[in-house]
Amino acid sequence: xxxxxxxxxxxxxxxxEAGELFRDYPGFWAIAGGWALDLFxxxxxxxxxxxxxQLDRADxxxxxxxxxxxxxxxxxGELDLWEPGTILPGEIDNLxxxxxxxxxxxxxxxxxxxxxxxIYRRDARIQGPREDAVTWIDGLPVLAPEIxxxxxxxxxxxxKDEHDFAQALPRxxxxxxxxxxxxxxxxxxxxxxLPALDATLG
Length: 202
Description:
The protein is α+β, with helices and mostly antiparallel strands. It has a domain at 15-144: Beta Polymerase, domain 2 (2-Layer Sandwich). The protein is 30% helix and 21% strand. The chain is built from seven helices and ten strands. A six-stranded mixed sheet has the order 1-2-6-5-3-4. Strands 7-8 form a two-stranded antiparallel sheet. A hairpin with a 7-residue loop joins β7 and β8 (127-129). α4 (145-152) packs parallel to α6 (174-188) and α6 (174-188) runs antiparallel to α7 (194-201). The longest helix has 15 residues, at 174-188.
Protein backbone atom coordinates (compact mmCIF):
# COMPACT_ATOMS: atom_id res chain seq x y z
CA UNK A 1 0.00 0.00 0.00
CA UNK A 2 1.41 3.41 -0.98
CA UNK A 3 2.24 5.83 1.80
CA UNK A 4 1.94 8.78 -0.59
CA UNK A 5 -0.35 11.60 0.53
CA UNK A 6 -3.42 12.23 -1.60
CA UNK A 7 -2.85 14.75 -4.36
CA UNK A 8 -4.99 17.27 -2.47
CA UNK A 9 -3.27 16.66 0.89
CA UNK A 10 -1.19 19.83 1.27
CA UNK A 11 0.44 21.64 4.15
CA UNK A 12 1.98 24.28 1.93
CA UNK A 13 4.92 26.42 2.90
CA UNK A 14 4.26 30.14 2.98
CA UNK A 15 6.33 32.34 0.65
CA UNK A 16 8.58 33.43 3.52
CA GLU A 17 9.01 29.84 4.74
CA ALA A 18 10.06 28.97 1.19
CA GLY A 19 12.43 31.92 1.25
CA GLU A 20 14.02 30.62 4.42
CA LEU A 21 14.35 27.13 2.96
CA PHE A 22 16.04 28.47 -0.18
CA ARG A 23 18.02 31.24 1.54
CA ASP A 24 21.36 29.55 0.88
CA TYR A 25 20.39 27.77 -2.33
CA PRO A 26 23.26 28.34 -4.79
CA GLY A 27 21.17 28.22 -7.98
CA PHE A 28 18.40 30.32 -9.48
CA TRP A 29 15.04 30.26 -7.71
CA ALA A 30 11.91 32.39 -7.57
CA ILE A 31 8.41 32.19 -6.10
CA ALA A 32 6.03 31.33 -8.95
CA GLY A 33 2.37 30.40 -9.49
CA GLY A 34 -0.50 32.20 -7.83
CA TRP A 35 1.65 33.32 -4.92
CA ALA A 36 3.93 35.20 -7.35
CA LEU A 37 0.94 37.23 -8.52
CA ASP A 38 -0.39 37.93 -5.03
CA LEU A 39 3.07 39.07 -3.96
CA PHE A 40 3.15 41.35 -7.00
CA UNK A 41 -0.32 42.70 -6.17
CA UNK A 42 0.76 43.28 -2.57
CA UNK A 43 -1.96 41.36 -0.76
CA UNK A 44 -3.40 37.88 -0.43
CA UNK A 45 -6.41 37.95 -2.79
CA UNK A 46 -7.38 34.27 -2.69
CA UNK A 47 -6.67 30.99 -0.95
CA UNK A 48 -3.55 29.17 -2.14
CA UNK A 49 -3.53 25.40 -1.86
CA UNK A 50 0.14 25.05 -2.73
CA UNK A 51 3.24 27.04 -3.59
CA UNK A 52 5.35 26.82 -6.76
CA UNK A 53 9.05 27.59 -6.93
CA GLN A 54 10.68 28.22 -10.29
CA LEU A 55 14.16 26.76 -10.79
CA ASP A 56 16.69 26.55 -13.59
CA ARG A 57 16.53 23.00 -14.92
CA ALA A 58 20.31 23.02 -15.31
CA ASP A 59 20.56 22.98 -11.50
CA UNK A 60 18.78 19.65 -10.94
CA UNK A 61 22.10 18.07 -9.99
CA UNK A 62 22.27 20.12 -6.79
CA UNK A 63 18.70 19.66 -5.62
CA UNK A 64 19.05 16.66 -3.33
CA UNK A 65 22.13 18.10 -1.63
CA UNK A 66 20.44 21.50 -1.29
CA UNK A 67 17.25 20.03 0.20
CA UNK A 68 18.44 17.47 2.77
CA UNK A 69 15.62 15.59 4.45
CA UNK A 70 13.15 16.30 1.68
CA UNK A 71 11.60 13.72 -0.63
CA UNK A 72 11.31 14.78 -4.27
CA UNK A 73 8.74 13.19 -6.58
CA UNK A 74 8.68 13.46 -10.36
CA UNK A 75 5.19 14.49 -11.46
CA UNK A 76 4.20 13.10 -14.86
CA GLY A 77 0.64 11.89 -14.50
CA GLU A 78 1.95 9.79 -11.62
CA LEU A 79 4.18 10.72 -8.70
CA ASP A 80 7.41 8.72 -8.60
CA LEU A 81 10.10 9.19 -5.99
CA TRP A 82 13.23 10.67 -7.55
CA GLU A 83 16.09 9.03 -5.70
CA PRO A 84 19.42 10.79 -5.06
CA GLY A 85 22.08 9.75 -7.53
CA THR A 86 19.62 8.94 -10.31
CA ILE A 87 19.03 10.93 -13.49
CA LEU A 88 15.83 12.93 -13.72
CA PRO A 89 14.20 12.20 -17.10
CA GLY A 90 14.35 15.15 -19.47
CA GLU A 91 10.59 15.38 -19.89
CA ILE A 92 10.03 16.01 -16.16
CA ASP A 93 9.54 19.68 -15.37
CA ASN A 94 7.55 19.43 -12.13
CA LEU A 95 8.64 18.00 -8.76
CA UNK A 96 6.39 17.62 -5.71
CA UNK A 97 8.20 17.83 -2.39
CA UNK A 98 7.49 16.77 1.18
CA UNK A 99 9.13 15.59 4.38
CA UNK A 100 8.83 11.88 5.26
CA UNK A 101 5.43 11.19 6.77
CA UNK A 102 4.14 14.66 5.87
CA UNK A 103 1.71 16.06 3.28
CA UNK A 104 2.95 17.84 0.17
CA UNK A 105 4.60 21.16 0.95
CA UNK A 106 5.86 22.75 -2.29
CA UNK A 107 6.33 22.19 -6.01
CA UNK A 108 9.46 22.83 -8.02
CA UNK A 109 8.91 24.03 -11.59
CA UNK A 110 11.93 23.38 -13.81
CA UNK A 111 12.50 25.75 -16.71
CA UNK A 112 15.24 26.31 -19.30
CA UNK A 113 17.70 29.14 -18.76
CA UNK A 114 21.04 30.13 -20.22
CA UNK A 115 23.71 32.19 -18.49
CA UNK A 116 21.99 35.36 -19.71
CA UNK A 117 18.47 34.40 -20.88
CA UNK A 118 15.28 32.85 -19.55
CA ILE A 119 13.36 30.73 -22.07
CA TYR A 120 9.63 30.00 -22.09
CA ARG A 121 9.42 26.27 -21.50
CA ARG A 122 6.59 25.67 -23.97
CA ASP A 123 7.98 27.68 -26.91
CA ALA A 124 11.62 28.77 -27.16
CA ARG A 125 10.70 31.66 -29.47
CA ILE A 126 9.72 33.52 -26.32
CA GLN A 127 12.66 34.45 -24.14
CA GLY A 128 14.32 37.45 -22.58
CA PRO A 129 17.08 38.67 -20.27
CA ARG A 130 17.45 36.39 -17.28
CA GLU A 131 17.44 39.31 -14.85
CA ASP A 132 14.05 40.46 -16.20
CA ALA A 133 12.41 37.17 -15.20
CA VAL A 134 12.47 38.09 -11.51
CA THR A 135 11.41 41.01 -9.38
CA TRP A 136 12.31 41.29 -5.68
CA ILE A 137 9.37 41.77 -3.30
CA ASP A 138 9.65 41.72 0.50
CA GLY A 139 13.13 40.22 0.18
CA LEU A 140 11.92 37.37 -2.04
CA PRO A 141 12.70 36.70 -5.71
CA VAL A 142 9.36 36.52 -7.51
CA LEU A 143 8.68 35.44 -11.09
CA ALA A 144 7.66 38.47 -13.17
CA PRO A 145 3.84 38.75 -13.45
CA GLU A 146 3.73 38.80 -17.24
CA ILE A 147 5.73 35.56 -17.42
CA UNK A 148 3.61 33.83 -14.79
CA UNK A 149 0.42 34.92 -16.54
CA UNK A 150 1.74 33.58 -19.83
CA UNK A 151 2.07 30.16 -18.20
CA UNK A 152 -1.43 30.46 -16.75
CA UNK A 153 -2.86 31.53 -20.12
CA UNK A 154 -2.58 27.97 -21.43
CA UNK A 155 -5.77 27.11 -19.53
CA UNK A 156 -8.16 30.10 -19.80
CA UNK A 157 -11.46 30.10 -17.92
CA UNK A 158 -9.97 28.42 -14.85
CA UNK A 159 -11.45 30.50 -12.01
CA LYS A 160 -8.23 30.98 -10.06
CA ASP A 161 -6.28 31.94 -13.19
CA GLU A 162 -8.97 34.37 -14.31
CA HIS A 163 -8.88 35.86 -10.81
CA ASP A 164 -5.09 36.20 -10.87
CA PHE A 165 -5.19 37.90 -14.29
CA ALA A 166 -7.89 40.35 -13.16
CA GLN A 167 -5.97 41.23 -9.99
CA ALA A 168 -2.61 41.69 -11.68
CA LEU A 169 -3.68 43.51 -14.86
CA PRO A 170 -4.30 47.01 -13.42
CA ARG A 171 -0.99 46.89 -11.52
CA UNK A 172 1.18 45.84 -14.46
CA UNK A 173 3.18 48.42 -16.37
CA UNK A 174 2.33 49.24 -19.97
CA UNK A 175 5.49 47.41 -21.04
CA UNK A 176 4.47 44.29 -19.12
CA UNK A 177 0.96 44.34 -20.60
CA UNK A 178 2.31 44.90 -24.11
CA UNK A 179 4.74 42.01 -23.75
CA UNK A 180 2.00 39.69 -22.53
CA UNK A 181 -0.36 40.70 -25.34
CA UNK A 182 2.32 40.15 -27.99
CA UNK A 183 3.28 36.78 -26.51
CA UNK A 184 -0.34 35.62 -26.37
CA UNK A 185 -0.84 36.54 -30.02
CA UNK A 186 2.33 34.69 -31.00
CA UNK A 187 1.29 31.52 -29.16
CA UNK A 188 -2.47 31.50 -29.57
CA UNK A 189 -3.42 33.96 -32.28
CA UNK A 190 -6.47 34.83 -30.23
CA UNK A 191 -6.98 34.56 -26.49
CA UNK A 192 -9.77 35.55 -24.06
CA UNK A 193 -7.42 37.91 -22.20
CA LEU A 194 -6.49 39.99 -25.24
CA PRO A 195 -9.52 42.33 -25.23
CA ALA A 196 -8.81 43.38 -21.64
CA LEU A 197 -5.12 43.83 -22.38
CA ASP A 198 -5.79 45.80 -25.56
CA ALA A 199 -8.27 48.06 -23.73
CA THR A 200 -5.57 49.11 -21.27
CA LEU A 201 -3.09 49.78 -24.08
CA GLY A 202 -5.38 52.03 -26.10
